[in-house]
Amino acid sequence: MRQAKTLSAHPARRVRWMNRDRAIALLMIAPSALAIAVFVYGFIGWTAYISMTDWRGLTISTSFVGFENYLTIFNTGRFQTNIRNLIVFTVFFLAACLIIGLLLAVLIDSRVRFEGFFRSVYIFPMALSFIVTGVVWQWLFAPGNWPNDPTGINLLFKQSGLDFLQAAWTTDTSVVPGWRIEGLRTRIGIPMAMIPVVVAAVWQMSGFVMAMYLAGLRGIPEEIKEAARVDGATEWQVFRTITLPMLQPITLSAVIILGHISLKIFDLIVTMTGGAPGNNTEVPGLYMYEITFKANKFAEGAAVAMVMLVVVALLVVPYLIYNRRTEVER
Amino acid sequence: MSSVAVPAPKRRHIHWSRVVVYGVMILFLMFFLLPVYLLLITSFKSFDQVSLSRMWELPTGFSLESFDRAWNGGEGVIGMRGSFWNSVQLVVPATVISCILGSLNGYVLSKWRFPGSETLFTLILFGMFIPYQSVLVPLVEVLREIRLYATIPGLILVHVVYGIPITTLIFRNYYATVPNELVEAGKIDGADFFHIYRHVMLPLSAPGFVVVAIWQFTSIWNEFLFGLIITNDPQLRPVTVALQNLSGSQFTQWNVQMAGALMVALPPLLVYIFLGKYFLRGLLAGSLKG
After folding, report:
1. Residue B151, Cβ density class (10 Å: 0-12 exposed, 13-18 middle, ≥19 buried)
2. What pLDDT shows up at residue B289?
3. What is the pLDDT of residues A208-253, one digit of tens each?
4. Which residue, A107, A113, A163, A268, shows the most beta carbons closer than 10 Å to its own?
5. Contact A176, A189 (CB under 8 A)
6. Number of alpha carbons in the 13 Å side-chain half-sphere of residue A200
7. Does residue B290 carry a pLDDT above 80?
8. Which chain A residues have a beta carbon less than 8 Å from that of B142?
9. Of A284, A289, A205, which is closest to residue B226 (Cα–Cα)?
10. CB contacts, 8 Å: A320 with chain B
11. To 10 degrees, what angle do helices B254-285 and A115-123 make?
């Protein structure tokens, strides 16, 4: 191999030399590729298979029932409620994170003092576990016997003369407006107990969105904005016609990241409400855990898991493909 | 106070908008710090000071009773000391192995591309987004089969495997910034795969390793679902599962819970405080293009 120094003169040998290293390269990535093949794709296939059996109870059953479990779960009020809750959580969580994230990024970018301090405080919740966040916010939103004997933020509101802001928070059983629709076994509307969970999730994640937007804002060349200002554009026009469009790729990334976290949300809800009151804050991630590991309905649990996977895939796969395409173009 | 001489009308207008800017920013500052305030004051209160009607008041003294109870247990509380050790035993090896794997994968996928390597990368990346509910039951079955269920090594394996996508992504994007010429020059000099890795890539890799190590450390430390499912045995619980159990116990001792939450939060918070720049880079790397 030492003689290979002159290989540039022998193209044919060069290719062979490349092959040896290429084989090593393939060998090095093989364990990871294999692990992903088994632990991601293999296990997903296995779960898909379980979801089409009638496996209930502790002994594995392999009798094939097709999509029966899917029909069962979609027809139960509890799963329908889960989906309603998940939609409500996702919409509010995404909207609030994007708006607050953008707002904070713009404010910080407007040359404020103590920029580093503000930024650090806004982002620090990202370093915490959802369990820590859940434990602390659970207490903040514990309503107590309000209005007279409140706890948590209800007490804070009372002490600052803002009694009208007191609410039942995580114990609120109402669904607003709570429409009933023929054929649906759940009421349509916003389960009010979900609001505190959204607040906690926004507390944790909006700083991250701010960081993304801030990186984007810093990447917009000042000259473009300056040119528009010279042409007589107001600050608002500059923001609307230059800044916002240039931040669009960031918004897309943020929606994907927040979206997949939101669709999988589990830890925060386990800690803050455990799905209560009723099933008003229960989401598919929690439902799957409950029926699989507590009720031993493995097949139905697998069906719930597959529904979750499909929803996440619908969001993520187009993005991954798009990302790969644009990368190849570069 | 002394600079009253200048205020031209235009400047005053700017000041007014500045007031709004700082006002909004301070409002959000309070929103972000409110839970921290409650966490700190509550966990430093002694038991006889804990009263729901005075929960927002500062402690009158400085007491470590709550931390003692949360750490060592007692009166219906299972202490978190053991689970801390479990988490350390889990996080350290998992982080080290993740770094090595991620670095090798990133090196191959950025500097030794082969037909289909981009597709492979995309297929690996997808693993980062899946809801883990969709692999849990097979995972438990396989871990039982290979006798790693309800063991720390089993949990390490799981975190390493499901950490492959993000660690590979971060290293691949990081190595993509290393000029190809450096690698090509090595190849022409007859250096092989490992020689180039050791003498060209590794010396440039320190920031990449820091970012990935921080990322894996914080996410494994903070992780809950795998810990819950795979460590059925209370003796093997990682901290997050122990904290959740602390809060789910019959008698709600808020001060003990807050002390526990603070202890679980502390390691990643220290990392954030001292290595914030790298932490942020890991976060942004998660958004693919960074």
Report:
1. middle
2. 46
3. 999 999 999 999 998 999 999 999 999 899 999 999 999 999 999 9
4. A268
5. yes
6. 31
7. no
8. 43
9. A289
10. 122, 125-126
11. 110
**Mutation target vs B (from A117, A129, A217; most B CBs, 10 A cutoff):** A129
Contact at CB, A47 and B134, closer than 8 angstroms: yes
Q: What is the pLDDT of residue B73?
A: 86
Cβ distance A312 to B131 less than 8 Å, yes or no, reads yes
Residues of B in contact with A42 (CB under 8 A): 138
What is the DSSP-derived secondary structure letter of residue A149? E
Which residue, A204, A159, A156, is CA-closest to B32? A204
Interface contact B193, partner A, CB < 8 A: yes
Alpha carbon of B234 to those of B59, B82, B94, B184, B223: distances in Å?
33, 10, 21, 53, 16
Helix ranges (DSSP H) in B132-253: 136-145, 152-175, 180-188, 193-196, 206-222, 225-230, 239-248
Report d(CA A323, CA B181) in Å as an integer.
25
Report the complex ipTM: 0.91
Q: By the CB < 8 Å criterion, does B90 face chain A?
A: no
Strands A187-191 and A144-145: unpaired
Q: Select from A31, A129, A257 the Cβ nearest to the Cβ of B286.
A: A257
Residue B20, chain A, CB below 8 Å: the answer is: no
The residues facing A176 across adjacent strands are A190
Q: Does A50 touch chain B (CB under 8 A)?
A: yes
Give residues 217 to 246 of A whose Cβ lies within 8 Å of B: none
Contacts 24+ apart (CB under 8 A), B116-120: B118/A324, B118/A327, B118/A328, B120/A29, B120/A33
Q: Which two tokens stand for residue A249?
A: 């790729």
Tens-digit pLDDT profile for residues B179-233: 999 999 988 888 889 999 999 999 999 999 999 999 999 999 999 999 999 988 8
Record: contact A124-B261, CB cut-off 8 A = no
Question: Are B137 and A46 inside 8 Å of each other by CB?
Answer: yes
Whether the CB of A96 is below 8 Å from some CB of chain B: the reply is: no
Which of B137, B269, B289 shows the shortest C-beta gap to A298? B137
Question: 3-class SS at B4?
Answer: coil
CA distance A302 to B135: 9
> Would you call A216 helix, strand, or coil by DSSP?
helix
Mean pLDDT along residues A278-293: 96
Q: How far apart are CA A15 and CA B3, in angstroms?
A: 75
What does the pLDDT look like over A134-175, one tens digit per residue?
A: 999 999 999 988 778 898 999 999 999 998 999 999 999 999
Q: How far is A180 from chain B (nearest CA, A)?
A: 30
- Classified as helix, coil or strand, B2 is coil
C-beta neighbour count of A231 within 10 angstroms = 9
What's the pLDDT score for residue B78?
85
Instruction: Give the residue from chain B lying closest to A27, CA to CA.
Output: B108
What is the model's pLDDT at position A153? 92
Containing A187, the helix (H) or strand (E) segment is strand A187-191
Transcribe A95-137 into DSSP letters.
Answer: HHHHHHHHHHHHHHHTT-TTHHHHHHHHHGGGGS-HHHHHHHH
What is the pLDDT confidence band of residue B2, given thresholds at 50, 70 and 90? very low
Residue-wise pLDDT for B48-61, tens only, equals 888 888 889 998 88
